[in-house]
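To close the section, here is one more complete example, presented without commentary so you can practise reading it yourself. The ligand is flavin-adenine dinucleotide.
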Amino acid sequence: MNKEPQERKRIKELEVMVADSIEEAHDTTTLIFFTGNDHLDYKPGHFLTIDPHQFDALGRFTAFLEDLKGRKEPPRAYSMSSSPHEKYLAITIKEERYTSGATKYPPLLSPLLVKRTFRGMRLTVTGFTGPYTLPDDIESQTDHLVHVCAGSGSVPNYSMLKFALANYPKLRHTFIYANKTWDDIIFRDALANLEKQNSGRLSVVHSLTRESETFQYTPSVRKGRITVELIRELIPDTSSAQVYVCGPAVSVHDRNAAKEKGVLPQPKFLESALASLKELGMSKEQITYESYG
Ligand SMILES: Cc1cc2nc3c(=O)[nH]c(=O)nc-3n(C[C@H](O)[C@H](O)[C@H](O)COP(=O)(O)OP(=O)(O)OC[C@H]3O[C@@H](n4cnc5c(N)ncnc54)[C@H](O)[C@@H]3O)c2cc1C
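Output:
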């Protein structure tokens, strides 16, 4: 796809240094990068890419996977968890799991970024790009932004949320966030603090699918998936809201595996969320989504 000149100008290689790494959850780390004096021209929701070939520690593993897969390992995309009005550049990575018998290949890059990065480590990132951003005139389109996310899908929305709270005073936000358990929630304290600081402008509702039987649910921490009923309750007036949906989706690998078995791929979070929004009568123009499949 041909990129706009503005977009081409924005995409460049950056040498960055890990200034800090923050454990957000047992399998999730935020890496804060020192970028020198480079001008960071990105929008909330944009991502950068990281090429696994640059890491000596992955060398043999990358080569072995390339032999098995018969193709070059591509760079992986990571959305910024920082926001352009903040001083630092950050990404937040959730470690992909290998489940024996279920996962075809062990994940390559995310385990290294989550568990084996250290302060002072240097790496090359390429950015910034992506269509999943807030338009500059968002305040003229809506007064209610609804974020529907799951797992690491909260990363670009967290960036958008911080940016919008700081720059678009007319917008209020509902942040609906699905995870397996309370301890899996990324940015849990940061979201709670933003909610306190922006009373009346931000409501955060968690949905937990695999908490223990004894877990104490509340009106802002619900049991189960993000259903049509939950969205209907939280967005009584769907006619004017704009929704930003991000999270795991059916990947090309899932599609191929299902095809081999002669079945349809099981919908994941993104497909289910989009189906719910459609059922609620929301139009395509009201929905923006990004797939992490
Ligand atoms: C626009 C965008 C933004 C993203 N932002 C974030 C973010 O902010 N944070 C975040 O944590 N993640 C994000 N991701 C996901 C991220 O890019 C990686 O996909 C993720 O970290 C996994 O990479 P990995 O190298 O660890 O795993 P991979 O090595 O890519 O493996 C992932 C899965 O795919 C399977 N697989 C790989 N190759 C094949 C094959 N040839 N055939 C069959 N199965 C295969 C593996 O078995 C494994 O189950 C984003 C993705 C996109 C597209």
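Once you have examined the tokens, check your reading against these statements. Residues 119 and 212 are 36 Å apart (CA to CA). The pocket of flavin-adenine dinucleotide is lined by residues 47, 69, 76-79, 91-94, 96, 103-105, 107-110, 130, 152, 155, 253, 290, 292 (CB under 6 Å).
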